[in-house]
Amino acid sequence: MAIDRIWSYAPDSGYAQDQELTGYTVAATDGTIGHVDRQADHFGLRHLVVDTGVWIFGSSVLVPVGVVTGVDTAERRISLSCSRGEVKAAPRFRTDSETMDRDYLAGVGDYYHRLPPRETTTT
């Protein structure tokens, strides 16, 4: 996957342009990680901020939309191409201002871009 594609939904992901995903459950390849708290598109770097609840001590993670493999509107569920451990090991998301920090976003994009490719799963 090209690094710039990490910030764009795959054409076969099921995402419809301008679709509101807030509140959707987010599932990694090996289980649920939380729900979409908000979605953003700063500098053309589209991403989801996922509230992990108690899974990572009540914090949130930032996930580039390029790792979304499926959007199931009926189930209000998003599937990712990475595991829970890979999401947990991503650069830590601490404050909302980081969604506007190009250096932080570049680091997140680089991390997810370097993950091993996976078979796409359907939701």
UniProtKB/TrEMBL annotation:
This is PRC-barrel domain containing protein. It comes from the Bacteria. It comes from Streptomyces cellulosae. InterPro entries: Bac_photo_RC_H_C, PRC_barrel-like_sf. SUPFAM superfamilies: PRC-barrel domain (SSF50346).
